[in-house]
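<backbone_tokenisation>
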Amino acid sequence: MRELCENPPKANIDALLSDGKESAYFGGMKVVFTPGHTPGYISLYLKKSRVLIAGDSFFRENIEAT
């Protein structure tokens, strides 16, 4: 784990994500700005399955829509 933190994988950035941006991936995905651990931290909300994906957490609540 230390090696990964000291030498993180590199990737080219071809698009920037911003709070509220939506895409059609996975039946509708919305970017949610969730600052905390790092500057620019985001979570991804998958509308169809009602799942929120965060970098350090995964949680799904089965609530009936009203």
In short: DSSP finds one helix and five strands in the chain. The beta strands are 22-23, 29-33, 42-46, 51-54, 57-59.
